[in-house]
Amino acid sequence: MRFGAKILFEEVTTAFQPGRRFGLTGPNGAGKSTFMKLLSGESEPQKGNVFKPGKLGVISQNQFAYDEFRVIDTVIMGNKRLWAALQEREILYDKADMTDEDGIRLGELEGVVGEEDGYSADSDAAILLQGLGIPDEVSERKMSELQGGQKVRVLLAQALFGNPEALLLDEPTNHLDLDSVHWLETFLNSYKGTLIVISHDRHFLNSVCTHIADIDYETIITYPGGYDDMVLAKTQVRARIEADNLQRQKKIAQLQDFVQKFSAGTRASQVQSRKKEMERLQTSDLSRSNIARPFIKFHMKRPSGRVPLEVKDFSRAYDTNKIFSNFTGMFERGEKIAVLGRNGAGKTTLIKALMANGPGPFDKEPDLASGGGEVTWGHEVQIGYFAQDHRETITPGMIAHEWLHQFDPQASREEIRGVLGQMLFAGEEGMKPTEALSGGEAARLIFCRLMLEKPNFLIMDEPTNHLDLEAINALNFAIQKYEGTVILVTHDEDLVADTATRIWHLDKGVFTNFKGSYEEFQATMAANAK
Ligand SMILES: Nc1ncnc2c1ncn2[C@@H]1O[C@H](COP(=O)(O)OP(=O)(O)OP(=O)(O)O)[C@@H](O)[C@H]1O
Ligand SMILES: [Mg+2]
Q1: Is 386 helix (H, G, I), strand (E, B) or coil?
Q2: From the CA of 25, which ligand is nearest?
Q3: CATH class of 309-529
Q4: pTM (two decimals)
Q5: At what angle do helices 100-115 and 80-94 cross, to 10 degrees?
Q6: How confident is the model at residue 366 (pLDDT cuts 50, 70, 90)?
């Protein structure tokens, strides 16, 4: 498969055996999601064939895809044929005057529903949901109302609906807190079919996988063991190939010398044999590794006032569940605030409620603007926002370069190209259609926007989801170096430990506002627990 000049993988022959649990790895844009779509049949390979069992369970990278649907329906959609038949049947039944054709069609549809066990679909789905720890009352709700941990469980139920022989999961741990990740690890470790899971989370891959299929050097190589085993084996193999290549190059250089010296002389036959030898040794050009680090640097156009944010008696609740109440505080320019809490604690609600009272330019949620207390944004505060569903904030149907340019129309083409280059969209890469971007590439494009807008207050909701290791490191440095103020929601403990100067901790309505590093926060919490 290739896109333009970029080869993702070529002439790959590989197999995924039952009972094994494969991690599919590679940096952002390597082609992991693309490969998974080839396996699931969502897209066709440009060359070659895929052989697969009849039923596959799939979770795609976009966990927001089913937000509009009810939980129970989302599960049943796991059986596409059944779902399509159910939908069509409903439309026909709703018709005021049915024709004969409609009647015949209805008969066919009933046949499909029967074949696919449609009459027990609701109860089958309910049993699956119960087994995955989703309470009954949730099944009528919309997916958009669920928090990350529950959403992944429902999507798993969807994938498992209809007993697939293989499970394909694209970054299932994004949006999950640690407890939920551990739950998923245990679940997958007891799964009996073939598992292929994409993830950038080392710990997760180490604990779940029996094998790693790594996309690099324009091919896919499978290594036994977990992620760490793969990295070790990969560097060893690579070092051996490189050393071997170097040897050959030396030998070729010597032969070349000989040929040049004597080609005009009398040793014609020796020259000929040397030439043959050179051809035989010809080193194969090694494909370069696709691992690369972006360079993130956030500047600010101008600093904000000394106190960019102040809250007084600030409270919000969902129905009767309070998320936080009577929160009062003053925050200074340059603080790096990490927002911590389990799935469903209300982290996103907290920042959206703050922003609903703040300066634009992004979509605000008016419902969250009021509800108790006062929020005051300081002098000249300019917010840069990285939303949790970051992909949705990029308009589809545009060229990446154009999408970016609208945020600073004054910028020259060179400037735009420079920013894109920093984020690894070199040359043609910046001319991609926005909807083609991989999860990590979409995140990098939003970093481009923030680098261009140069805000003095960054609000980031789980920015490391979808990012590969190199990009996470680059983001870590960029946040440390940034002179503005930051509010960062994340489950990435390393990132919190390296950057935070203040912690907001949400736990079942108990809100802690702690000034200090993550280490100090943990020490204090441990002391309080005693
Ligand atoms: N229609 C398309 N036109 C051009 N390029 C495309 C198209 N579809 C995908 N690509 C490119 O193919 C590459 C592989 O994309 P893919 O989504 O498979 O990456 P990935 O390995 O899943 O990355 P991530 O870790 O960021 O999710 C990306 O560089 C992407 O931009
Ligand atoms: Mg992907």
Answers
A1: strand
A2: 1
A3: alpha beta
A4: 0.87
A5: 150
A6: confident
